[in-house]
Amino acid sequence: MAMKAGMFSYKALRNKLKNSDPFTRVTKCDVDMCESFFKFRTHPDMAGRVDYLDNTVTLGERREKIRRILNIARNDRHLQIILSYDANKKTFESARCWAVLLTMQWDQLQAFYGILTSQDVTAKQDAFLSFLQACIPVTNLVWWMSETPTTRKEQVWARSERQRNEALKRDNFRCVLTNSAIREVCHIVPFWTLSRRMEIQRDVLQPLRFVLGLEFFHRLMGLMNQQTERGTTEPSDFDLLDSPANMITLSNKLHKLWDDGVFGLEPIARPQKSDTLAPPTLEKPGTGPSAVKRGADTVEHQPPHKMVTKGNKTGKEGKLVSVEKPMYGITLRFHWLQKTTLVGLDDSPPTLDADPRSMWQDWDHDNVRDNEHATPLDNGHIITIWSDDKEKLPNWDLLSVQWLAFRLHRLSGAADVELYAPQKDQDDDEALAARVIQAKRQATEAIAERRGLDPDRLLADPRGPYYVPPDAQPRAD
Question: What is the pLDDT of residue 286?
Fold first, then answer.
């Protein structure tokens, strides 16, 4: 597909250059803009990886580890006790468990495997049960990163225009990926998190502690707590979740695709460099804005060893010395996130060690790559965002938790996120509750068609992936 897209772009560019129409022909402004884009574009670097599924190790190595975990769970009588409960078995066979194993940090997965192979029965059972319990709330993680509640409570929170402008300035007032001047400042972690801090900590991060790892978990909890004293944001306030640390500048088209999790940004490095500032200008006394004219003539005739430069108060000979200014960066790798044929986190893959690359869906209309007037994007596109203040860089951990959520969502088929709406939100919003039921019906129909089952019976089956109580199902007129 990438080759076809490249051929199409080349053909379109060639036709554009041949166009002689006085109203639509290429202008000098167009040429200048293209030159700036070519200069901005970087060579894709996947670091030997095939796609977003390869991480510290290849997908093949990871699947082999998952296969061993699956064999242990099937043959260990102590773990079979846990799987004898229908709820635990359903979780273990679901897409949420499969997707978590495919996206866990490699050291976390190895540690989990190490405990399962130990002789400590209690530790083994505790770890396995903790893993299953951590797989359940991944739906809350996807909801948090993908949905935008608009209750009255969430609408009263004011966005900081000053912090937004700081992010724009850091990103040179352009999309960091395409260099497009048509841009928007986007939040990494959704802005509405400000009104639900405790809820996010309790219902999303706390249950995911086993999967996230203790250090990452504690860092995220700390980030959630960096808020203003009043608990509300005003234009002059600093709040980490409404600061450049939680912002990045994207084109309007990429903003929509990012909200939908169609692509992800993987943080890969924290480089540093020094920028050389121009030396201070040597000024004659009396020419500066704060100089006193009365003493100017006297100082002007001083010998060189008495002359001072601007800002030099030592009285010694002035030297025009360049200043090294430290700059801090974060390097990100761009990935298009292809989705599987599954229909949600409660669907089930063929097996727990199934190869997701054999389950890819073809790219559809939600994967628009038409970046008109901007640099094309390919997997492995590398960018580095720089700032002289490391606190103003996009936060590594906020990007990492978003990167995790988007991969989980796409591996499970990128189903309608309203499938994952918390029950409390449904209780407070009848319209949302109705949409959830409709989303469950659509997902169930897709699963039933794939398995050759009756969708109505599957929808009403408590053991089904998207069970809806019969009294809650909409009646046919």
Answer: 52
